[in-house]
Design brief:
Length: 167
């Protein structure tokens, strides 16, 4: 006598375990290289425009825009701006002349949900042809970095290819 077992991958037990694991499994911390800002890259006439969402970033200190052959590379770091305040010195205690150590960051009490990502990032846009560094302009306004590469699509008209039906 032969017995045939039919597996049910999403049966009641598997689905219950999947849902239970989603709520009980700890969320892994974001990797340092896992942060990448949202980008919008499009053609505007003969120019290529790349927009990157970088709220809370100091563009002069924390962002670098480079042209490497046919690659436009935007890299930088989004820093955590929260400040851990040092506890006030107790009354009657004398100040020391030596260096004061910063207090260890205290863990928050209760639940802590962090949806804002911090860390280093690198985004690369491949250009259709090599561009001159003088053709690149970058500006930062209201948390959006806009990089324009002028004339990178000049002389590149789309070529229509005729499609034939096989006999």
């Amino acid at each position: 006598m032969t017995t045939t077992l039919t597996p049910i991958p999403f049966g009641a037990l598997a689905a219950d375990r999947l849902v239970r694991d989603l709520w009980t499994r700890p969320v892994a911390p974001a990797q340092r290289s896992g942060y990448a800002p949202a980008a919008d890259v499009y053609r505007d006439g003969d120019d290529l425009v790349a927009r990157f969402d970088l709220p809370g970033v100091d563009p002069e200190r924390d962002v670098t825009v480079e042209l490497e052959g046919r690659r436009l590379v935007v890299r930088g770091e989004r820093r955590d701006q929260r400040v851990v305040e040092a506890p006030e010195a107790a009354e009657g205690s004398e100040a020391t002349d030596g260096p004061v150590e910063a207090p260890a960051a205290e863990k928050p009490v209760g639940r802590h949900i962090r949806e804002v990502r911090f860390g280093e990032f690198r985004r690369t846009v491949t250009l259709p042809k090599a561009a001159d560094a003088d053709a690149v302009r970058a500006s930062y306004d209201a948390g959006v970095l806009t990089v324009t590469v002028a004339g990178v699509f000049a002389g590149r008209a789309p070529q229509r290819i005729e499609v034939t039906r096989a006999a």
